[in-house]
Specification:
- The protein is mainly α.
- It is built from 8 helices and no strands.
Length: 176
């Protein structure tokens, strides 16, 4: 059932058109920041058929902006959840005792980036295409306290990821 939901959401984003399509891309980006384990790069798919009366490059810019804003908003929501969980000793104990030991893994990877590079580390982690955003966002949300810097870093990282993806596609297309 959940697989069907994920497939439906991805399909809706891939075929998004018009201003409603941009809103759908923003909502999708909001959701993948804290709950959906789906690729954020998929938002680039409708660029050529968005039907806004603009060139594809302008559509891409609007998609990147809508996605970046959506992911920043979703990240702030995740950040708030992380702040609340941080105050709850039982929640952290439960996560540490879980079979997957998410806290330990996070401390080894994403948390080390946060401690060493702060918000720049978060933006860099989120700029890597294909890497799950949710893990980085929650790992950083437990360590950091500034909502505005957190939102800015997630926006920059989200935009960075899409720009890296677009540049990669352009490079591959040029080679072909």
């Amino acid at each position: 059932m959940i697989e069907g939901f994920y497939t439906a959401i991805e399909g809706a984003v891939r075929t998004a058109t018009g201003p409603v399509g941009l809103v759908l891309i923003g909502i999708y980006s909001f959701l993948i920041a804290f709950v959906l384990p789906l690729p954020s790069e998929i938002v680039l798919a409708p660029a050529s058929h968005l039907n806004l009366g603009l060139p594809t490059e302008a559509n891409l810019a609007l998609i990147v902006l809508a996605s970046g804003l959506g992911k920043a908003a979703g990240s702030v929501f995740a950040f708030h959840i992380g702040q609340e969980a941080k105050r709850s000793g039982p929640v952290i104990r439960l996560v540490r005792q879980s079979r997957f030991d998410v806290v330990s893994w996070s401390e080894k990877k994403a948390v080390r980036l946060a401690q060493e590079y702060g918000y720049i580390g978060l933006a860099a982690a989120l700029s890597v295409p294909g890497f799950p955003d949710t893990i980085s966002i929650y790992a950083f949300s437990v360590l950091e306290r500034d909502y505005y810097r957190f939102a800015a870093a997630t926006f920059v990282g989200s935009v960075g990821r899409l720009v890296v993806t677009i540049a990669g596609f352009a490079g591959v297309t040029a080679l072909l």
